[in-house]
Amino acid sequence: MLSPLIGVHWPTNQTWTDADQADWEAGLARVTASAGLPLRWVENPEWLKLCDRFIPRAKAPSAKVLMKRVMPQVLRGIKATAKEESCGAVGTLQCDGWTGENSHHLLGFMMTLHAVRVHDASGDSRNAEELLKQIIESINQVESEWGVIIIACTTDASGESHKAQRLLRAKFPHLVTPDCLAHQVGC
Fold first, then answer.
1. Could you tell me the end-to-end alpha-carbon distance of the chain, in angstroms, rounded to an integer?
2. Rounded CA Rg of the chain
3. How high is the pLDDT of residue 66?
4. Displacement of CA 122 from its chain's centroid (Å)
């Protein structure tokens, strides 16, 4: 016997549409990400039996489809919504640099709570002027693509970061440029 709730959401006399399938797949992608599940869980035989029993019209996507098609679509939608909701807001820009396991020097830029940009700076000079250039490019990108007004910029505690902050203050005196507290604490 089917649960009465099943009939409310997917009446037995109603066909399963492409839109229903797309919503189903997007929901699976969100559950996968929010629960930290491995991608292969959607191919688990017990899960597939459960789907066949209670949601027979829904097609469970493969791990490959989930990763290559569904998750990128969901992420594009989330990013578009975040951009729309951020438009006209004020924000802060954070910058941090690190060297990856592949020996690439990376610069990460984040606005408020959204990761905006990671720049592979391996081929760039490691100096304040180059860092300033990358910071300004990120500010311009955030303001033009996201519609956010940057009011502050924080960098890590390296020597070139301090100099880049000083140059940024000189170029944009309206910006607040505090040091990163996390980089000031010796852990």
1. 59
2. 23
3. 95
4. 23
Mean of pLDDT over the chain:
84
- CA separation, residue 178 to residues 79, 92, 149 (Å): 28, 11, 17
Structure tokens at 48: 């597939």
Q: Per-residue confidence at 182, pLDDT binned at 50, 70, 90? A: low
Could you report the per-residue pLDDT of 22-40, keeping only the tens digit for each? 999 999 999 999 999 999 9
Residue 29 burial class via C-beta count within 10 angstroms: exposed 0-12, middle 13-18, buried 19 and up: buried
Residue with tokens 């990120």: 138
Residue keyed to tokens 């033009």 = 144
Answer with the residue of higher pLDDT: 44 or 120: 44
The residues, any chain, with a CB within 8 Å of residue 106's CB and separated by 6 or more, are 97, 98, 99, 100, 118, 119, 120, 121, 122
- Residue 132 in contact with residue 153, Cβ under 8 Å? no
CB neighbour list of residue 156: distance below 8 Å, 6 or more residues apart: 95, 96, 97, 180, 183
